[in-house]
Amino acid sequence: MKEITCDELKALPEDSYALIDIRDEGLREYGMIPGALSVPTEDVYNSKTISDIPVDKKVIFYCEIGRVSLAIDDTAELLNGRECYSLSGGYVGYVRSGIASDEDKEEKRKKAEDSIRKKFHKQLFSPFARACKTYRLIEEGDKIAVCISGGKDSMLMAKLFQEIKNHRQVEFDLTFLVMDPGYKPENRQLIESNAEALGIPITIFESTIFDTVDTIEKNPCYLCARMRRGYLYSKAKELGCNKIALGHHYDDVIETILMGMLHGAQIQTMMPKLHSTNFEGMELIRPLYFVRESDICAWRDYNDLHFLQCACHFTDTCTTCHTDGTTSSKRLETKKLIAELKKTNPFVESNIFRSMENVNLDTVIEYKQKGVRHNFLDEY
User: Fold this and answer.
1) N or C: which end of the chain has fewer CB within 10 A?
2) Of 166, 184, 94, nearest to 129 (Cα)?
3) 123 and 46 both lie in a single domain
């Protein structure tokens, strides 16, 4: 398979080629190259989508970093005779090649802010403000560390915080905190560039988390997440903050509820705010609690923004590039299950969410409160 660079791709007439995204569904949700068609890797050699492409068009495949697409057999019957290419660097390379100029960055910032105030006000700002008010997430005198991973959720959260601060209903301060746990220079550059383009004045600090978890074989992502939160709490407190804000949204909440039941044999939810057990006086808040992921994606795509899913040693190669056959997570399975249930019950998502507000302890066999287990027989 021949390779084509991102610069060469952008120089081609748009009607001269067809882009084929062979990544799995979980990665496609983080963004696709505009105009690309989706064909999972396992369907490449018998895809009607590909067979319907005119033979005089170039067929350009891409995965996350360009490794799997490069291995496609372009002599296979379906592809034989077609001019096929693998996009060098894959989707990650495409995103990195699109770092905007200073002039483009100012235009992007204005468009992103205007879209929050107008086009997406009802879908994004209103539920953000409602969560802040309902759960008292922002209070007078707060200094909030808005934790930015570089993805769509945390970047949007930062913009929403800037917008609500402009309303001046409550006096509070913001610090936009980015932790570099050992990013490759080009990945850190992308986060910095996106933050600059969106007008987010980030504060970056370094840690060695990636080096620490790099040798861990079992659940490295879980350990990484726990360590990240500890470092964020510590740095936020050092900077005089009393709260850290994370970018978990409505879909994360309902998926967590269902995953706990199906895989953890427990009923629990992702709380809108909670006190830190290890850092006295610190709180964690989730102001995107009512914001739907589909609306975040719509805002991202409308503004032609591109973010990396995760820039660590494990996911930089993406699930389509893994060799262990694992192409979906429990969360993705749960997401698909909810989508399937929604076909016959359009209220399934809100019902899952509201179930955590309607727990009837009279019908619960056992429950735990502050670490103490209570059984219905105790008061039977």
Assistant:
1) C
2) 166
3) no
Through-space distance between the first and last CA atoms of the chain, rounded to whole angstroms: 71
Least-confidence region, from 145-149, 180-184, 351-355: 180-184
CB 165 within 8 Å of CB 192: no
* CA-derived radius of gyration, the chain: 23
- Helix and strand element counts for the chain (H, E): 14, 13
Assigned domain for 84 exists: yes
Report yes or no on 200 lying in a domain: yes
Are 1 and 85 in contact by the 8 Å Cβ rule? The answer is: yes
Phi, then psi, of 318 in degrees rounded to 5: 65, 160
Predicted pLDDT at 321: 37
Residue 60, in any domain of the structure: yes
Q: Which two tokens stand for residue 252?
A: 């994360």
The answer to whether residue 237 is domain-embedded is yes
Query: What are the beta bridge partners of residue 21?
Result: 38, 62
Q: Are 66 and 196 in a shared domain?
A: no
Bin 304: left if φ > 0, else alpha if -120 < ψ < 50, else beta: left
The reply to whether 266 and 126 lie within a common domain is yes
Tens-digit pLDDT profile for residues 61-118 = 999 888 899 999 988 888 888 899 999 989 888 887 876 666 678 898 999 999 999 9
Compute the C-alpha angle 327/331/335, nearest 5°. 100
Dihedral Cα 103, 109, 114, 119, nearest 10 deg: 110
Q: What is the pLDDT of residues 168-218, one digit of tens each?
A: 889 999 999 999 888 878 778 888 989 999 999 999 999 888 777 777 767
Domain shared by 12 and 119, yes or no = no
Partner residues linked to 178 by β-bridges: 204
